[in-house]
Specification:
The chain has 4 helices and 4 strands; from the N terminus they run E-E-E-E-H-H-H-H. By secondary structure, it is of the alpha+beta class. It has a single domain, classed as Aminoglycoside 3'-phosphotransferase, Chain: A, domain 2 (Alpha-Beta Complex). Strand 2 and strand 3 form a beta hairpin.
Length: 120
């Protein structure tokens, strides 16, 4: 119901990366910092809140820190519950896309079940 009732992004659309998962991030392990992002093949225009979905798949705390930095630099407030809902929907979408690959679905379910239990 929350997905069906979700209004348009309050910040409209922006040009974003929209694929900032761990495989597209370069981490400097020595300093413990993100050194850069790459693979802009999925970049384009989309809702501002969607930009934070992929980092949510890595770590909720990481996403919280990214959002806090974004808020400081942009002056905009990001609705963390909206980002969580978008991440929930994205996880389900990924499973649906891979439905014919049992091994991929099994691996995704290993990640989704704890996520869903934490969201209760």
């Amino acid at each position: 119901m929350a997905w069906a009732e979700l209004p348009p992004d309050p910040h409209g659309e922006t040009y974003g990366h929209f694929d900032a998962h761990g495989w597209n991030m370069a981490f400097d392990m020595r300093s413990g910092r993100l050194a850069g992002v790459f693979d802009f093949g999925d970049s384009g225009f989309g809702p501002v809140h969607r930009e934070f979905v992929y980092s949510m798949l890595i770590d909720v705390d990481l996403t919280g820190r990214i959002i806090a930095s974004y808020e400081r630099h942009s002056g905009r407030s990001i609705d963390r519950e909206r980002v969580l809902l978008l991440a929930d929907i994205h996880r389900l979408w990924e499973i649906a896309v891979e439905h014919e690959d049992g091994a991929s679905v099994a691996a995704m379910l290993e990640e989704v079940v704890p996520w869903a239990m934490a969201r209760r």
